[in-house]
Amino acid sequence: MRRPVLSGTVIAVLALATTVAPVAVAEPGGSGCQLDGTAAFTPNGPGNLGTFGYSLTGTLSNCNSSRAGAPADGTMAVGKVVTESVPITTSTGVVQGTAQYQEPLASGTGAIPVNSCGAGSTSGTGVVTWPDGTATVVDYTTNDAGPAVSLQGSVVAAATATLVPGSEQPAGNAPSTYTITTNNPTTLVGDGVQGAIAFSTDAPDACTTDAGLAAVTVTGAVGLGSTQ
Question: Which of residues 162 and 17 earns the better pLDDT score?
Fold first, then answer.
């Protein structure tokens, strides 16, 4: 049986771009969406150790926006490996091919002793991809104590992903980095992001181990926009 876990750093980890009151960031322009996803922790999750890393994949649905032309749904990712079309230098010259790039993993610190599921802070970069192929990049931080989580973030111009060695197709040398840019016209650089979410796990006892939680299910609501 999957059980909800309602406190601590793990909530902060998953508070990326979420809010229960999107209206606060939607004047004169902004949006609110439902978020459903999964966060996976690496090399360890919140538990007996004071630090951890994580990635997140999820969907955004039922989006409502005060900005004309804003998309109704999309996907969100933190720390995802993406495949991109890039020039590759081969033994016969430069050709257009594909290579994989690692988006930045997010990181967190927890309150030790006891375990880092209880309180702490996190920071990371999320990439929202919309149906038309455009993207929105968000930098964020979270701070929490018990069930109260404060998220502050903003839309930024770009994020840098790092080449996964050996992923080039055809074999050769691809650029060492790939830049993901914010280019959706309805999400503007400088827009604010804020919120709180809930998650559930079927293994809460992992919070008392060095390995920590392996993954959690995420549900919430996304709030993004400008109050200016």
Answer: 162
| Beta-bridge partner residues of 220 | 35, 197
Asked if 52 contacts 45 with a C-beta cutoff of 8 angstroms, the reply is: yes
CA distance linking residue 95 with residue 88, whole number of Å:
5
Both tokens of 171, joined, read 């074999």
> What's the whole-model pTM score?
0.83
CA angle (72 as vertex; 71, 75 as ends), nearest 5 = 85
Cβ-Cβ contacts under 8 Å for 67 (sequence gap 6 or more): 29, 30, 31, 186, 225
**CA 25 to CA 19: how far, in whole Å?**
10
Q: Are 10 and 46 in contact (CB under 8 A)?
A: yes
Q: Give tens-digit pLDDT for 113-148.
A: 556 676 778 899 999 999 999 999 999 887 765 444
- Name the burial class of residue 171, with classes exposed (0-12), middle (13-18) and buried (19+) by CB atoms within 10 angstroms of its CB: exposed
| Count of CB atoms situated within 10 Å of the CB of 65 | 20
Measure Cα distances from 148 to 22, 46, 144, 197 in Å: 17, 17, 6, 10
Q: Which two tokens stand for residue 64?
A: 């409502």
